[in-house]
Amino acid sequence: MISRLVERRSLTMEKRWIICILVSVLIVVALGLGLGLGLSDTSLRTSFISTCEEFGGYDCEAVWQEFEKAYVGKDPCSVPPEAYGDLMEAAPFKAICNNVMLWSKTKDIVSEMTQRRKCFTQLESTMLGTALDNKVWCGREGSKETFTRSCPKWDECVNNPQRSFWMKASASFAESACGDVTVLLNGSREAPFDPNSIFGSVELPTLSAPAVKSLTVVLVTNTNPESTCVNPSLKTIDDNVTQKGIRYGCKEVLRSRISDCASDTSIACKKCW
Fold first, then answer.
1. pLDDT tens for each residue of 86-97
2. pTM for this one?
3. More confident residue, 99 or 223
4. CA distances (Å), 68 to each of 42, 83, 168, 219, in order?
5. Nearest to 225 by CA among 199, 197, 251, 194
6. How many Å apart are CA 10 and CA 17, to the nearest integer?
7. How many beta carbons lie within 10 A of that of residue 130, not counting itself?
8. Whole-angstrom distance, CA of residue 199 vs CA of residue 167
9. What is the pLDDT of residues 231-248, one digit of tens each?
């Protein structure tokens, strides 16, 4: 009797071990699927197409295909800005005269202004900019999917999909500028102009006369600003545009004034600074 009980207990323990092993295998498989296949995501396509259709005037499915063509199936650190060339042709930026607003380290106040007032347009206000602002995407070698997780961060590698897109889009957006152009820089910084920023390295060099007549730097300041319009870093901008035949100007404007102007439509946009 005792031997039978021992035998039964042994069989029961053996079954428990087998069940534990099977459960462990299932967990590993599930995790493998989650980490491998589960990263692919159709939500980006859905939001992209939806935004595109809201703007109107585009073949949204064709634009999405050109977008995917830039990075799908590729090493996510080997997507240069030129990969988005066909996308820029499929959804070109229309000529924007007298209301292009560029920025560096002032995105929040610029977005506040452009979202509430339609007299200025930033890149993020365009169809492509709106569709992809704050989005993450990449491809994988050997895959036809779009992934929205575990993609390279901005500084992780130079030619990652997001960084290259914004570099190419910024250049194309600056090329579309004409008339009077405005750039908002951060007066709370010791050097408000950063030559390595997208504005300094891409947009500023792209602005050209005679399409662009003038560039006005709006130095966004607080009560006790760190910088003023005589800041040495701003001379680089002055020299760059003056050499190209573009008029240069600079104005120091309190952040509170810009916020008031953004919310008060009775203030004419040109009187905001």
1. 999 999 999 989
2. 0.84
3. 99
4. 12, 10, 15, 38
5. 251
6. 11
7. 16
8. 10
9. 999 999 999 999 999 999
